[in-house]
Design a protein that fits this description.
By secondary structure, the protein is α+β, with helices and mostly antiparallel strands. It has two domains: about 150 residues, OB fold (Dihydrolipoamide Acetyltransferase, E2P), CATH 2.40.50.90; about 100 residues, Nucleic acid-binding proteins (OB fold (Dihydrolipoamide Acetyltransferase, E2P), Beta Barrel). About 25% of the residues lie in helices and about 30% in strands. Strands 9, 10, 11, 12, 13, 14, 15 and 16 form an eight-stranded mixed beta sheet that branches. Strands 1, 2, 3, 5, 6 and 7 form a six-stranded mixed beta sheet that branches. Strand 1 and strand 2 form a beta hairpin. The longest helix has 16 residues. The protein is globular and about 55 Å long. The protein starts with 7 loop residues before the first helix and ends in a 10-residue tail after the last strand.
């Protein structure tokens, strides 16, 4: 099987570009595998293993998140394995985002003769779109594919192992520490002393679902015409890592992870 068809120099340049470097360090060897020996094995719908040059390499598929609950987790893994088997020797992996995560796992876009494996899994309903600030190019088209699969009740959406959550903090609690989608109306917005902006989805910020955007990331929203402080009253859909901080929270660092469902409602004036 092939990994990249380019030579060592081109391989180093591809990895450097993915990591934000323009040229590889002088005298360094590209830290990427060569030819894949044997088939690829799916660990989940968004992770796989390949064996190359006598070593095991784990790959994280960029831009998607697999369901963790059964039966969808197993069925989604089987769907990825079928795509890997179908691709066979024509499986191609291209570095995405930082190239590797902090654990050393390769992050890649995967494709075969029929096109993107990630797009196929989303279209079949077995994974959701997981947008990252360092790899946003495929996100808009994948949101369209995801919506079609969700509306059709395909794959994990049919089993409700992938879902769009409401903002009830009690209902969100079992889904903490995982990538989730949450949709609801922004009740109010606020800004902390350190500059971070909060979108509040309830009346008690100490317990309700909240979205935060750090000051360093706000320019990315502004560049795309998203006025965070003007979202009061809007119905939005956000996706990302759901964690606990004064209730369930998602931290956004790029605008592609926020979808406008309904624009802010105009203020109702007394007597009108």
């Amino acid at each position: 099987m092939g990994w990249w068809r380019s030579g060592a120099a081109g391989l180093a340049l591809a990895l450097a570009a993915a990591c934000g470097e323009t040229t590889p360090p002088a005298g360094s060897e590209p830290d990427m595998p060569g030819a894949i020996a044997g088939g690829a094995q799916a660990l989940s719908a968004d992770r796989l293993v390949v064996w190359t040059e006598g070593r095991r390499e784990e790959v994280r598929l960029a831009g998607i998140a697999a369901p963790r609950a059964e039966p969808s987790a197993s069925l989604a893994r089987e769907a990825l394995q079928a795509l890997l088997d179908q691709a066979g020797e024509d499986l191609r992996l291209e570095p995405a985002g930082p190239g590797r995560n902090r654990h050393g796992t390769l992050i890649a876009e995967a494709s075969g003769p029929q096109g993107s494996l990630q797009d196929a899994l989303i279209s079949l309903g077995w994974v959701m779109t997981d947008s990252h600030g360092d790899h946003t190019g495929p996100t808009p088209s994948r949101l369209v594919l995801e919506e079609a699969a969700r509306n059709a009740g395909l794959g994990a959406w049919a089993h409700h192992d992938l879902r769009v959550h409401g903002t009830d903090p009690n209902a969100l609690a079992p889904w903490l520490d995982s990538v989730q989608i949450v949709e609801g109306r922004v009740i109010s917005t606020g800004q902390a002393r350190d500059g971070r902006i909060y979108l509040n989805f309830g009346t008690d910020w100490r317990t309700d679902f909240t979205v935060q955007v750090m000051r360093r990331d706000q320019r990315r929203f502004e560049a795309q015409g998203v006025e965070l402080r003007a979202l009061e009253g809007a119905v939005v859909r956000v996706r990302g890592w759901l964690f606990e901080e004064n209730g369930p929270m998602i931290s956004l660092d790029h605008p592609e992870a926020l979808e406008m469902v309904n624009a802010p409602e105009p203020a109702r004036l007394p007597g009108r």
